[in-house]
Structures are given as structure tokens and as C-alpha cells.
Amino acid sequence: MNKSIVAGVDIGGSHITVALVDMHSHKIIEHTWRRFCIDAGGIAAAIISDWCVAIKDSFKANNLTPGSLGIAMPGPFNYEQGISLMQNQNKYDALYGLNVKKLLADALAISKSNIVMANDAACFLQGEIFGGVAKGNRNILGLTLGTGLGSSLAIDGKVWDADLWHTPFKKGIAEDYLSNRWFVKRYQELSGEEVKNVKELAQMIPVNKVAQQVFDEFGENLGTFLLPLTKKHHIDMVVLGGNIAQAFVLFKPTLEQLLIDESILEIKQSLLGERAALLGAASYCLRKDNFTMQINGS
Length: 298
Fold this sequence. Notes:
The chain is of the alpha/beta class. The protein contains nine helices and 15 strands. The chain has helices at 44-60, 100-108, 120-131, 174-177, 180-191, 198-202, 209-232, 248-258, 275-283, and strands spanning 5-11, 15-22, 27-28, 34-37, 69-73, 77-78, 83-84, 115-119, 139-145, 149-155, 158-161, 168-169, 172-173, 237-241, 266-269. Strands 1, 2, 3, 4, 5 and 8 form a six-stranded mixed beta sheet that branches. Strands 11-10-9-14-15 form a five-stranded mixed beta sheet, covered by helices on one side. It has a two-stranded antiparallel ribbon with strand order 6-7. A hairpin with a 2-residue loop joins strand 12 (168-169) and strand 13. Helix 1 (44-60) crosses helix 2, helix 5 packs across helix 7 and helix 7 packs across helix 8 (248-258). It is globular and about 55 Å long.
């Protein structure tokens, strides 16, 4: 087994992405990239089998048999023991209560000790620290902005899921104001028209002033949410990922205006995109001592 090559695995609600990572260069081995659709509503045996097909195929692309795996997994999940706690989320209900780590290890004919599992939001931030925009920073907040709100904190080298999505905020919780559905709802409130998602709304600019107003308000919401967190944890960098972050330039001015007094704080868009979770997950195979296990996920 080549210990310098580790598989980074990202488990999503409808897909699995796998790529081998060179742990010396901190880079993905591009020709090993695999992304397969998964029936998250299927039976446990089928889910495990489909995951293993993708993992084996990635190793095979580099003429290797399965070795060490770092897996980014949504929560809730007992990452240390490898037991799924996901239930009634329209994904992976069949795995509830099962030792997923053991099932994978048996199916891949490797030891359980070769598999490290971590929260997907934490893996995103760890990946940006390992090989992205957050290199060299100590206190970092990572947010993945999309269908939901993922969050993670890195303080003095330790990374964990911050679980901020349900933080009380304004008239609801943070995810009500910092997700794709807020954009859809707010644009309809202001214009009386419907829009599918953030990408479609961004394409309306600069000809649609209401669309820009929505992005301005989002920047204000995000800044208002971030301000107490950055002060509490002495954050020196915020890294934004997820689909909404692709439109960062559209809400950056109002966001930075609210944080203007925090002169040491940097707001950066993810450099790695979906590669961040793969690199972060793989890097945990080298950083087990710095891994804070979390039971509750995003």
C-alpha cells in the first residue's frame, strides 16, 4: 500500500465523489477523479456497493488497490465509531444505526483503521487550510452557502463542525437568511416574480435592479451574522464556499461595509470549490491527533 496516496471521498445526498490525493504535494491526482450518482433512498447493501465501485475505480485508475480513505460525510453521524445517525432526511435512512465504517472496510478488504470519517463542512475548511486560500491562518471560519448553511471553525490548528445553521437569527434561524431559499423568497417578495435559484438571479444583473437589491441585502444579512462570531472567536479569515459563493462579487461590497472596522479580517472565496472536501477528508488521515470528533452534523 502506498501511504503517500490517500483517497479523498465526498458523500453527498445524491452522489459520491472520489479522487486520490498525493499527500506530499497536497494535490489531487486528476485522472483518478470519479463522480457517480447514488440512490440515497436505496437499501444499505446497494448504497455501500455503489460507494465501493467508485472508490475501487479511483484507486484502479492509478494502478492501486484500496488503501487509506478520508471520507467527508454529512451529519448527524458518529464519525469516530463510523455509525450513521441520519434519519428522516430523505437520504441514507437505510444506513441509520449501522457501522458504515465496518461495512466499507469489509467490502473493500481493508482495515477499519484505514478509514477516517469527518463532517463534510469541517472537511471543506480543512481542505482550504491543507491546499487552498486558508494556508497560514490560525483562526478561520468556513461557511458553505447553498441549499443549506454549513459551517466550520479552525482554531489554532483544530477544525470542527460549528453547527451554526440553526443559530437564532432575526425572525428565525441563520439558515432561513443564508441559503438559496432566502434568495428565491426575497426576490418574489420584492418583484412578484419567481426565480429558480441564485445562479438565475445573478444572471439578471446588471439589467435588473431588484436582483442587485437582493444580493445587497444578503451581504448585510451575512455581515450581521458574522460580526459577533468573528469577535467571539478572534477570527482572522472567513472562507466562503458553496454555490452562493460563486456570486461573491455581487454581495461583497455590502458585506465588507459591515465588517469595515474589522481591519484584520479577510473574507475569501473558496479557491478549491468541491475539491476542498476531498483534500480536507484525505488530510485527516495525517491529522488524526488534531481531529475533533463531532456527533451532530450540518
